[in-house]
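User: Show me a protein chain along with its predicted structure.
Assistant: Here is one chain, sequence first, then structure tokens.
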Amino acid sequence: MLDRTDARILLALDADPHATVVALAEGLGLARNTVQSRLRRMEADGALAPVSVRTRHEAAGYPVLAFLTLAISQADADQTLADIAEVPEVCEAHAITGDGDLMVRVVARDTVDLHRITLDLLRCHGVARSSTAIAMVESIPLRMAPALRGLL
């Protein structure tokens, strides 16, 4: 669980992603060892996502972003998720409630490529059907800063 000090460190990193541990410590009035140990703990605990998550899909040559709702066989969920994870254009997947079982975020080079990716997902063990929604515009980018400020 993140606390107030963790939130301060993360917000400072949001403001200056290239800040050194020393610069963060000085700017926050914390000991260098405190900042360093907390960053290591957050990385080890999984509180910090991998750096590649910050990469914009458009910059990587994937201008199309889509969300697929997949209906899967619940009995084979582990194998299904393993197969889905093998599709390189899959950015994330979440078990959901509602009409489908999984919400899968994918990136594609164009709509023809999106069709290929959809077929690849439909070929995964246990996937019964899909429904696709193509993102038109990113209205509010993925963010955590407002929630982190709530910890202050």
